[in-house]
Write a structure and sequence with these properties.
Elements lengths: L9 E6 L6 E6 L5 H15 L6 E4 L9 H13 L3 E4 L5 H24 L9
Parallel strand pairs: 3-4
Antiparallel strand pairs: 1-2
Length: 124
């Protein structure tokens, strides 16, 4: 279990646009995004006593190879009355908080790998 964190290849960041609360979830597979969202939704509803009203993403293809998971995810949003908003992937103005957080996570990760002197084959 010493290198348990190396089993994660992806991650997702959920950001509350109102209070800028951020939550990071490591993912082993892209299709784990659904479970991460359900965990995040439950945490928000239990800790903050509010319902999620809108889910925004850049439509970056997280589900492109998993249409079955995409169907369940969209069905869940509809069931919970959560509006889905897909922004343009390129303009940073629509996603600037998440893009900055993503850059920070990547740079911190590479810095940690560099100072730990891990072999480059473990970096990707």
């Amino acid at each position: 279990y010493k290198y348990k964190f190396f089993h994660f290849k992806y991650y997702v960041i959920f950001v509350d646009d109102h209070i800028r609360y951020k939550q990071f979830y490591p993912l082993k597979h892209k299709y784990d995004l659904l479970n991460a969202f359900l965990t995040f939704q439950q945490m928000v509803e239990n800790e903050f006593l509010v319902k999620i009203k809108k889910f925004s993403s850049d439509g970056g293809g997280e589900f492109s190879s998993q249409p079955f998971i995409l169907f369940y995810f969209i069905s869940h949003l509809d069931l919970c009355s959560i509006v889905q908003h897909i922004s343009c992937p390129s303009p940073p103005e629509q996603n600037e908080v998440t893009k900055r957080k993503n850059r920070y996570i990547v740079e911190t990760g590479f810095t940690t790998l560099f100072y730990a002197q891990l072999p480059k084959n473990l970096w990707i």
